[in-house]
Amino acid sequence: VEMSLSSLRTLWIGSVWPQPQASAAGLHTIGLLKTLKKNKADVTFVSITAHNENTVKHLKEIGVEKAIHCRPNDNKFEEILVEAKPDIVFFDRFLMEEQFGWRVRAQYPKCLHVIDSQDFHSLRHSREFQLLKGKSVHEIKNTVPQFSATIGLDKANDVMKNNIRELSSFHRADHVMLVSTFEKEMIQSFGFSPDKMSIASFYYDPVQLKENKENSNPYDKRKNFCVIGNFQHRPNIDQLNWLIREIWPKISKRLPQGIQLDIYGAFPDLGAKIEGLAVKKHNQGVILKGWVADQYDMMKKYKVNLAPLRFGAGIKGKISDGMYVGTPCVTTEIGTIFY
Fold it and tell me: Which pLDDT belongs to residue 151?
């Protein structure tokens, strides 16, 4: 199918509104939408999450004016389809394809369906399950999602059912966008054609990257350690628990007094889930900073970016952002496997 992007009627369906300062997924989505708008595509963005002026401001900044809230199973969606007349629909993660894909097919059978996976959910959930079973990070790194139920293990069955749902969604779609070659090759091993998949990772500004290199904060002017991650994301909660409970006490003992670990991330009110963290109080030099407006400006002030991830999938925004501003990262095999 050949068509000009300038005449492409595009419908983007997301579970949340993209917020580049809040998550790597938000940064990724805004990058893709910028590319569409740069090529004059007509974009309508629909989310099942209620919106306000703050949640849609990033869309308006890049020229996406049509931002609509639509609850699942709402008949309003058919009205949105009639108005948008899409040539192509992007589904933000397979869950949106499950919810809305069949409704698009019913009205526009020739419309192209593209899933933006963000990460391979089956891999992330399978790795988390292995962690719960007591596996080491090294063992978890080699996890491959399974697709046959294990009788008597409810958690295993739940994981496998979700794995099957995700691959079924990929089969229904016309194309699947992935963020890493590692995940693409893994999904190919399940029988998918490489032509059905493409790599769409982060879209960093090359001009800004050059400026970052030329105007980087001198390393001897930097201080302290930082860690960043959306507090709604389970891999981030786990890394902070592990970091504060086991890793940081060992690091801090070997550092000069006054060196601190600053924790950043969206939705800091969920910080109560982090064991051992005294919110807004010093705790072995650990300080919860919370949400930050500009993660790049923040990260270039630190000597070390910590990312002790024990499970997860996809390219890690916290690591890539550090690279973007020249801040070295100390991470695990899970953090480095996609680079």
Answer: 47
Calpha distance 137→305 (Å, rounded): 19
Residue 4: how many other CB atoms lie within 10 Å: 9
| Residues near 202 by beta carbon (within 8 Å), at least 6 away in sequence | 24, 27, 28, 31, 179, 315, 317, 320
Rg (CA), the chain: 21
Q: Is pLDDT at 278 greater than 60 in this prediction?
A: no
pLDDT confidence of residue 1: 39
Beta bridge partners of 90: 12, 114
Strand segments (E) across the chain: 9-14, 42-47, 66-69, 88-92, 112-116, 175-178, 197-199, 225-228, 261-264, 286-290, 304-307, 329-331
Task: Write the secondary structure of 205-236 as one string of H (helix), E (strand) and C (coil).
Answer: CHHHHHHHHHCCCCHHHCCCEEEECCCCCHHH
CA dist 284 → 60, 118, 124, 161, 175 (Å): 42, 35, 31, 42, 49
Alpha helices in 66-180 (DSSP H): 76-84, 94-107, 121-132, 137-141, 154-172
149-162 pLDDT, tens digit per residue, is: 554 556 667 888 88
Closest CA to 276 of 252, 305, 293, 258: 252
